[in-house]
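B., you asked whether I could sanity-check this one before it goes into the benchmark set. Here's the sequence:
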Amino acid sequence: MSPTQAREVMLLVNPTSGRGRALKLSEATEKALRSAGYAPTVTVTENLEEATERAAHASPGTMVASLGGDGFLGAAAGGARQSGAVLLPLAGGRGNDTVRRLGLPVDPVETVASISTLVVRDVDLGLVNGRPYFGVANVGFDGLANQYGNDAKLNLGSFTYLYGGLKALREWKNVTFTVVVDGQESTFPGWFVAVGNVGQYGGGLHICPEAKVNDGLLDVVSLGEASIFRVVATFLASFRGGHLQRPGISFVRGKEIRIHANKPLSIFADGEMLGPLPATMTIEQASVRVLVPGNSSVFQ
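And here's what the prediction gave me:
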């Protein structure tokens, strides 16, 4: 199926994404879809659950355009996997990491204008305790940073995570993780565990730089015991994806990952706090059909 065959479009909009960015862009995005020959039905959702439900009831093969942040895109993907709809990711959040990593523009109008050049690919979907996510599930210091970034009163864009990270550095102490990857267990004092599908989060951090979205595997990257200087250096290197060889970093792949900790911690996915540990991450291979550039680098 080519993108131009799916004339009906369900445009899902998250009014809170990017502190209202998605809602502001929705009218221009709707007009762009009409100009491209589509007949969009616009729904401004009340929550992520509604995005999943709406996408789940789309007609098979029709297009669901998700205009919001990474968490909203993951929620829409969860519904599209049930209905068989084709998902069009549109950047409406602050970081828009999954859209960037897939190789799509951060301007949704530009994405729609290029829709005839996009191709439909089967994409893996991660699950945290059964809840779908696209990009990265993470726990630890970076989870605190994510939480502080989300709570920031200023719209800092891609610097949101940096702000949160500096604040979280002061509070992270004496945490030990137990991580089980396909039955292989390891216990270590550390700073974070990231389980990547698309593999980018935090406004440009390529935390799982080798992740591929159609290999049926999740990339697990963790940082063990380290000084604050090493932590900062690791995250700075991750903007280029150059941290995997740094001291203290562990990198493995697997289909099922279980995480425990010696302290109460929350698990995040696509920027959304999902709940407390323990958590189990699994992968559903080729479960969502997504419109992406033909030369997207996250495919095998």
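One thing to flag: Helices lie at 21-35, 48-56, 70-83, 97-102, 108-113, 141-151, 160-169, 228-238. Otherwise nothing jumped out at me.
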